[in-house]
């Protein structure tokens, strides 16, 4: 990716075509479980719309909430997408995450957290998207609190991709200001995995607000990084003038929180294009070696829509099975 204008042109060209082949259209007909804050924010300013507040969210088919039946296996997965992900792409990513989990013999309900990430594809739009992601933290925190109230003995497992890490950062800081969460380990989130995190490489330092919140509100926290991630090492570095957490891990000058683990997952992401099953020029045109595909952490589809590779999900499942509490 040479510059922002090239990125914008490639993405616009991609959006001008139908987003899915006929083999993938069945995803849209699936009854997916989603927590949504779509249309809560102004995509041009990042401001919260007057019809919403800092904690409200919409839920669809979430077990244990709004009269829906409780979970049978006492676990809930939550997938949080990154920047510039439309509602159709969110559904595809939730489904692909599910397929990769099932391929690793870990079948649990997965809720997709869908937020207003489709800002303008330019530096200003990126700045607004970061602000919207940060403002979604209290909304995610409220959902987690509501779910924990209704399902107090269930494991909560979060997977956050790219700028979804900013949503997690803000949510944990919000939870850490909640005395019920801060002082009661029984409320802890069982595990959080950041994948390709598009936030500062100092964000999770033990000396930061986020690091303190990680210690106080999470049982096991993981950062899966990848030194060959094509978008992080190009667009992010050029725009932020710093390394992201998802590229090399926590800055070596910073101390880890006590429950924090990092792993290099470069070799879990093969040099395959079309992670979603369709060609995305703004990602796939730079894929040439292991680790390149920023979209591949949750797996890859073949042209028939079926799972071709599980990305780094096998690493996540191994962590879940090792520390299944």
Describe the structure.
The chain is an alpha/beta fold. It has one domain (26-266, 310-320): Rossmann fold, CATH 3.40.50. Helices cover 34% and strands 15% of the residues. It contains 11 helices and 10 strands. It has helices at residues 4-15, 87-103, 123-135, 137-150, 164-176, 179-182, 209-217, 232-240, 245-248, 281-284, 313-322; strands at residues 33-36, 58-60, 75-80, 110-114, 155-161, 189-195, 218-225, 260-264, 300-301, 307-309. An 8-stranded mixed sheet has the order 2-1-4-3-5-6-7-8, with helices on both faces. Strands 9-10 form a two-stranded antiparallel ribbon. Strand 9 and strand 10 (307-309) form a beta hairpin. Helix 3 runs parallel beside helix 5 (164-176), helix 4 packs across helix 5 and helix 5 packs across helix 7. The longest helix has 17 residues, at 87-103. It is globular, with a radius of gyration of 18 Å. The protein starts with a helix and ends with a helix. Mean pLDDT is 89; it is low at 10-22.
Helices, by number, come to 11
**Quaternary organisation:** single chain
What level of helicity do the residues show?
Answer: 25-40%
The strand line-up of the biggest sheet is 2-1-4-3-5-6-7-8
């Amino acid at each position: 990716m040479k510059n922002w204008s090239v990125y914008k042109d490639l993405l616009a060209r991609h959006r001008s075509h139908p987003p899915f082949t006929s083999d993938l259209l069945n995803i849209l007909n699936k009854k997916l479980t989603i927590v949504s804050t779509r249309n809560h924010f102004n995509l041009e300013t990042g401001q919260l719309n007057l019809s919403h507040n800092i904690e409200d969210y919409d839920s669809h088919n979430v077990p244990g909430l709004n009269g829906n039946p409780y979970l049978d296996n006492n676990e809930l997965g939550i997938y949080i997408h990154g920047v510039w992900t439309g509602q159709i792409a969110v559904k595809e990513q939730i489904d692909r995450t599910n397929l990769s989990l099932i391929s690793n013999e870990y079948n649990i309900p997965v809720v997709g957290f869908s937020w207003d990430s489709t800002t303008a594809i330019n530096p200003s739009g990126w700045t607004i998207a970061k602000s919207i992601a940060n403002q979604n933290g209290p909304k995610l925190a409220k959902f987690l609190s509501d779910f924990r109230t209704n399902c107090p003995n269930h494991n909560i497992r979060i997977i956050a991709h790219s700028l979804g890490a900013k949503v997690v950062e803000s949510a944990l800081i919000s939870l850490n200001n909640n005395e019920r969460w801060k002082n009661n380990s029984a409320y802890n989130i069982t595990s959080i995995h950041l994948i390709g995190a598009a936030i500062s490489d100092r964000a999770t330092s033990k000396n930061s607000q986020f690091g303190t919140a990680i210690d106080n509100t999470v049982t096991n926290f993981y950062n899966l990084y990848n030194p060959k991630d094509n978008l992080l090492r190009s667009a992010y570095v050029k725009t932020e003038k710093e390394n992201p957490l998802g590229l090399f891990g926590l800055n070596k000058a910073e101390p880890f929180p006590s429950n924090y683990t990092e792993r290099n997952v470069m070799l879990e992401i093969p040099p395959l294009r079309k992670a979603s099953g369709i060609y995305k020029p703004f990602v796939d045109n730079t894929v040439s070696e292991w680790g390149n595909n920023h979209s591949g952490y949750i797996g890859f589809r073949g042209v028939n829509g079926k799972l071709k590779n599980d990305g780094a999900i096998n690493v996540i499942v191994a962590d879940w099975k090792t520390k299944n509490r």
